[in-house]
Amino acid sequence: MAELEIGLGKTARRAYGFDDIAIVPSRRTRDPEDVDISWEIDAYRFELPLMASAMDGVVSPETAIAIGHLGGVAVLNLEGLWTRYEDPAPILTEIASQPPEKATLGLQECYTEPIKHELIGQRIRQIKDAGVVSCASVTPQRTEEFAPHMLAAELDLMVIQGTVITAEHKSKTQKPLNLKQFVRQLEIPIIVGGCASYDAALHLMRTGAAGILVGVGPGQACTTRGVLGIGVPQATAIADARAARMRHLDETGVYVHIIADGGIATGGDIAKAIVCGADAVMIGSPLAAAHEAPGLGYHWGMATFHPTLPRGARVQTTPRGTLQEVLLGPAQENDGRLNLFGGLRTSMATCGYESLKEFQKAELMIAPALQTEGKSLQRSQGIGMGR
Questions:
Q1: Where residue 139 sits, what CATH number does that domain have?
Q2: Which of 84, 123, 242, 314 is catalytic?
Q3: For a 10 Å CB count at each end of the chain, is N or C smaller?
Q4: Catalytic one among 135, 195, 222, 351?
Q5: 314 an active-site residue?
Q6: The whole model's pTM is what?
Q7: How many CA atoms lie within 13 A of 126 on its CB side?
Q8: Which domain does 183 fall in, by range?
């Protein structure tokens, strides 16, 4: 890709987000009922290419079970409220009741409660006992400490997650996690991330991870792009990771899954993420708008309560429907925020593709007028695509 000069001696690539691109229909269409949107990673098959984000306002053991029964997999944050409190319900009510100007401080205070190791296995077993795939996340700093408890509870999928994860972390003060060694010594599949560049994605794939999370800063509750000034728009980040996957596949014969993490609000966004190269998506904000969400109308990211440099906000959502309605419909709204995976299925059918792998081959266009062309009435009235 050609670079643009942004000043004497400094160039930069142009990058694109979901709102900058459009999927081009092909010469054929299909019946939506013939479209297969299932996703397989390692030994696990899911009817929906969905991971629910490891946010305390989104995923509780109960919502993890419900999402599992609906066909996706939910990621429980093992450094969150569910392992700090036997009953987090009063804490969630307290967080929801904080005025905006005190929300971050209130979160920081709630998360000073120490993590209780016995709750790690208890939460994992609660999910497994319900007959769904158990998945949980930890940061690299806590991975080795928590691993014995996760393995003892027979966790199915592990996510090692941070704002930016690399296979080559340097530190003069502490021994960093040897990601490649850790991933290869465990028998369960591990997903690592986030990342947002070709090189970072390729090196994470070379650790032996089953999948990587792609996305730095695009989430509704994330302020990383403002606090740290880093990030890559999602369409470009996913496409770059796709190129890294192709190289890794050529070199090793091993296919590593790409999970688009963040920046997804509608079924159309999910479709664009798949066409850019994702195998599945990780979403938080749309699920926080479900009636069953534990955040009581609010959600916040994993770095929002950082004790010295918070990189997130407590975001209020508008309740839209049940988890069933958010994911699979029926929809009573026309803006694409309900029946997300019905939207994906219909997009694939309209463009003539039968599977997610096929849909990754669809044509894309740069489309700066996509959100505004012919939509002046919707925008002026605040309805449909004008919201």
A1: 3.20.20.70
A2: 314
A3: N
A4: 222
A5: yes
A6: 0.96
A7: 17
A8: 22-366+375-386
